[in-house]
Write a structure and sequence with these properties.
The structure holds two protein chains of two kinds.
Chain A lengths: L3 E7 L16 E4 L4 H11 L5 E8 L1 H6 L1 H14 L4 E4 L6 H18 L3 E5 L4 H6 L4 E4 L7 H16 L7 H4 L16 H13 L29 E6 L3 E3 L15 E4 L11 E3 L19 H9 L5 E8 L7 H17 L4 E5 L2
Parallel strand pairs in A: 1-3, 1-4, 4-5, 5-6, 7-11, 7-12
Antiparallel strand pairs in A: 2-3, 8-10, 9-11
Helix pairs in contact in A: 1-6, 3-4
Chain B lengths: L1 H8 L3 E5 L2 H7 L3 E4 L13 H20 L7 E2 L3
Parallel strand pairs in B: 1-2, 2-3
The chains are: A alpha/beta, B alpha/beta.
């Protein structure tokens, strides 16, 4: 099989200079340049007549600062070579280069519908942004790992272009793309789980079928200096909503949150609010929603002057089966609104 | 959600919930352990007055948490 490959690289690997030429504008070069020559050698070793027919170059600084222009210009240049495959990088742990490689791959995949493969260090920020949109081979953090990265990229690219059956991320050696496929296993889930427990007890190796997500950490925000001057907001994932759930927030696996004006309320009672959360026993929260959103006592403390003001808006969603990505988005959007409103602190209750 | 609000708004966000290990896992910085999963800030079993007193105690603890300088994830037990 013979495929036409276009290779995307930055100014440095194209031999155009280092940081001083990071503003290098998108350009095209016929044939392979720099690491592209290694790709050609690997294709040959693999017995394929596939070759790098063209190289598209862009400075990392230019790409990062002019993303839309760079993206459009690179796409045009890639397309002009009429490729069957796009490869980008490897970018190792270069952050801007990783993002550029991921972005070019994602764009070419979407617009031209051809296989795309890049490689970078798993902690490169480009991975988190583009892992769902491009095959990414894990690379070392520096160019020391150039050769193995290129070999893995070349093999995966040929496999994709030949439309061969693609195995799992673990089998094929790319970073997972967040894709789950259904298939049958000879043993059912209970048997496999017991096998894993037994292996663990025996100190044998086993492979989990469901990897736990790794959560981010952030440094704690500075404390509120003077509580008596503070505006405090209430937020909840406990599914407390105005009676009748006007925005139809889901009882589980929520994809939205609600914002409700509580400025005229002093107490949550079954006549005005209810719990629609599908993940806990609501017998108490439906008699008194304050056991999840403590409005009554917050009003008392506000009147007593313990703090200055309760923020007029309650932010609420259901936190059961809710995707982490949605929860993070809710947090980001709510955070923006609190920042804009000059809120000093928030109390978030979860069930 | 807690972490992202804190990160974006740059303000302390105190989370009151019952399963402390989950709050530690998802990256909550200021943690106040709640009463029970279905009523984190209430104690219906203590009667109306006891329930409210419990809620007040937890909120005052949340205020303490948001006014305390911390350098790492902290559980405010009292």
């Amino acid at each position: 099989m013979k495929f036409r490959v276009v290779h995307y690289i930055n100014q440095f690997y194209a031999g155009k200079g280092g940081e001083e030429t990071a503003d290098f504008r998108p350009d095209s070069i016929d044939g392979a340049v720099g690491p592209g020559k290694e790709f050609d050698r690997v294709f040959q070793t693999l017995g394929s007549e596939t070759r790098v027919v063209g190289t598209v170059v862009c400075g990392d600084g230019f790409f990062g600062e002019n993303m839309e222009t760079a993206r459009a210009e690179c796409l045009k240049r890639v397309e002009a070579f009429k490729p069957d495959i796009l490869i980008a990088g490897p970018a190792f742990n270069a952050g801007r280069y990783g993002v550029a490689c991921g972005d070019v791959c994602a764009t070419v995949s979407e617009k031209l519908g051809i296989p795309v493969v890049t490689a970078m260090y798993p902690e490169n920020p480009g991975v988190e942004i583009y892992f769902k949109k491009s095959y990414i081979i894990p690379a070392t953090d520096s160019a020391r790992g150039m050769r193995p990265a290129i070999e893995s990229m070349a093999k995966l690219a040929l496999k994709l272009a030949a439309k061969e059956a693609m195995g799992t991320a673990r089998e094929e050696g790319y970073l997972h793309r967040g894709v789950r496929r259904n298939f049958f296993k000879p043993k059912n889930g209970a048997e496999r789980a017991v096998d894993m427990v037994l292996a663990r007890l025996r100190g044998q190796e086993f492979t989990t079928e469901y990897e736990m997500p790794v959560f981010k950490r952030i440094p704690p925000a500075a404390p509120v200096k003077d509580l008596r001057d503070a505006t405090i907001a209430l937020v909840t994932s406990g599914g407390i909503v105005p009676f009748g759930n006007p925005d139809r927030i889901r009882v589980s696996s929520a994809e939205t949150y609600g914002t409700y004006d509580i400025s005229a309320l002093n107490d949550l009672v079954p006549e005005n609010y209810e719990s629609i959360h599908g993940g806990y026993d609501r017998q108490w929260s439906n008699v008194d929603p304050d056991v999840v959103v403590p409005l009554d006592v917050m009003r008392e403390l506000e009147r007593e002057g313990v703090f200055k003001k309760l923020h007029p808006i309650l932010y609420t969603t259901t936190g059961t089966g809710t995707a982490v990505s949605h929860a993070e988005r809710f947090g980001q959007e709510i955070g923006e609104q609190l920042k804009k409103a000059g809120v000093s602190a928030a109390i978030l209750t979860s069930t | 959600m807690t972490r992202e609000i804190e990160n974006v708004a740059g303000i302390p966000v105190v989370q009151i919930a019952t399963i402390v290990p989950i709050m530690l896992t998802v990256g909550t910085n200021r943690i106040v352990p709640g009463v029970a999963i279905p009523h984190p800030v209430g104690a219906p079993g203590l009667g109306p007055e006891g329930d409210k007193a419990k809620r007040r105690e937890l909120l005052l603890r949340a205020f303490k948490a948001m006014t305390t300088e911390i350098s790492e994830q902290t559980i405010f037990e009292e």
